[in-house]
Design a protein that fits this description.
Elements lengths: L1 H10 L9 H4 L3 H8 L16 E3 L11 H13 L5 E2 L19 E4 H14 L19 H6 L7 H5 L2
């Protein structure tokens, strides 16, 4: 599924961030960076680990509606009690790189932290291949700046639940 999502955005068959990136961005690594605002390179998604889920809505606007605000507040206050954290929080001093905030994406840290450590030890850039734009993975530092660039705030708390 990740490959299909990536290739659709890469080819312009599906808009990425409301844009046809094939028509607008000829530099392949810049196109990859634009897609990676919200989509992982194939082989780098936390969803593949079986530890991460998307909840409620993929539309960021939902989380500014009354029902969305209620869900967001509950998750912020209680998710860590059950071992979950939001890995892609707003960028700032503690998370400079990586995906844009995904209020819908939640990670079960007792397992995800183990999977992240295994990923870092076992996966290299030579393993990220076989799709359009794969050659950009190393130059955009996909492992360091995307796979490893997650919220550090409630990760530790959630990891030990």
């Amino acid at each position: 599924d990740q490959d299909k999502i990536w290739e659709s955005k890469w080819s312009g068959k599906v808009l990425a961030n409301f844009r046809n990136l094939k028509k607008e961005i000829s530099d392949t690594c810049q196109r990859a960076i634009e897609i990676m605002k919200y989509s992982s390179l194939p082989g780098t998604s936390r969803h593949h680990w079986g530890t991460d889920i998307d909840l409620v809505s993929f539309d960021p606007r939902f989380f500014y509606s009354i029902p969305g605000l209620i869900v967001s507040r509950w998750l912020r206050l209680h998710a860590a009690e059950y071992g979950f954290c939001q890995p892609y929080t707003p960028k700032g001093p503690s998370r400079v790189f990586g995906y844009e905030e995904e209020k819908w994406h939640w990670s079960y840290m007792p397992l995800a932290s183990k999977m992240l450590n295994a990923y870092i030890q076992k996966v290299s850039y030579s393993d990220i291949s076989g799709f359009s734009g794969a050659g950009c993975a190393a130059s955009v530092k996909a492992i360091e700046r995307y796979v490893m660039s997650i919220n550090s705030g409630d990760v530790e708390l959630a990891r030990h639940k």
